[in-house]
Amino acid sequence: MNLIDASANLSGEIHDRLRRDIIFGRLGPGERLKLEGLRGRYGVSVSTLRETLSRLASEGFVLAEGQRGFEVAPISAANLREIATLRALLECHALELSFAAGGIDWEAGVVAAHHKLAQMEARMATGDDTIKEEWKRYDWEFHRALIAACGSPELVAVHSSVFDKYLRYQMLCLTHRGEIAAGEHQALKEAALARDATRARAILTGHIEGGVQHCLAVGGLEI
Known about the structure:
Elements: H1 3-23, E1 32-33, H2 35-42, H3 46-59, E2 62-64, E3 70-72, H4 77-101, H5 104-125, H6 132-146, H7 153-173, H8 179-193, H9 197-219
Antiparallel strand pairs: 1-3, 2-3
Helix pairs in contact: 1-3, 4-7, 4-9, 5-6, 5-8, 6-7, 7-9, 8-9
């Protein structure tokens, strides 16, 4: 591996770590991102950090404040609603495309992803919040599996970015809705296997809105 490749790999790794730490709340909304402190925490140069934070700013996870530096993007009820609306639009469209094109391998992927998620939801229902990051990873994988056959890498990439922003709110508010969400996921799986896009859109729209309402109720965001 040459120096350019090594530098690119390091930058990508630090980007993923910082992004993950913001999504999962280890770096909180509005937190100042001081370069010297981050350099010690992540073990990389200030120049790499500047490049990474600028990239995260372009993705909406960080605010760049000119000479004042960087801070984690704030959260608000209005922003959550905007993200939820965008997610619903993208995911409903991708669902339709995926249901029309998906074959037996896609069905198997949906079933397998749902099985893993259902196991995590059962554990969360017992009050075990030590697995919250693992739970949300399987949640992401299930929703990703539903749209995997849509045939548009660009659509999948945009959806993934929006989903991560929605996920950030869920992690900050820990919005586990128990049997309600688990039932919606089961219904989505059944609609996918039946290729019932109309039913799936209705379930998904209610699923996302239910998450928003729960997040607003328990997360302390101003409505």
